[in-house]
Design brief:
It contains four helices and four strands, in the order ββααβααβ. By secondary structure, the protein is of the alpha/beta class. Helix 2 packs across helix 3. The termini are close together. About 23% of the residues have low confidence. This is 4-hydroxythreonine-4-phosphate dehydrogenase. One of its GO terms (molecular function) is NAD binding. InterPro entries: PdxA_fam.
């Protein structure tokens, strides 16, 4: 699913499933696939060098395992694998990911949108 506005595009890792199902479904190959799909989609619609932010699963992207270890075990390795192919950043919390995108601090790389009108940079987020 893509939530698409002029300034921000959000692509979800999963859609319409419970949080419990999401955690059971989350895996590195799925994240890598969605990052690749996002990159290809954005290039097709006119963004030759899309900036992709990947949001963390847990509050504060897990705080190094304090709030969950999905970022350490699953998200970070997927981002690292894709970064090796095209460049990118470490997982961000969803709120920080959107903030960083709005401030142009994110290059190729990983948020779900709470205030779509607040963003000034064109970017994509993956949650």
């Amino acid at each position: 699913m893509v939530l698409y506005t002029e300034k921000l595009k959000v692509i979800h890792i999963t859609t319409h499933i419970s949080l419990r199902q999401f955690l059971d479904t989350l895996n590195q190959p799925r994240i890598e696939t969605v990052i690749g799909v996002a990159d290809r989609f954005l290039r097709r619609v006119g963004y030759p060098r899309p900036r992709i932010a990947v949001a963390g699963v847990n509050p504060h992207a897990g705080e190094n395992g304090l709030f969950g270890d999905e970022e350490i075990r699953i998200v970070a390795p997927a981002v690292a694998a894709m970064r090796a192919k095209s460049g990118g950043d470490r997982p961000l919390s969803a709120g920080h990911g959107v903030y960083a995108v709005s401030r142009r601090h994110v290059r190729h790389g990983s948020g779900d949108v709470s205030r779509p009108g607040a963003y000034s940079a064109e970017a994509a987020g993956i949650l």
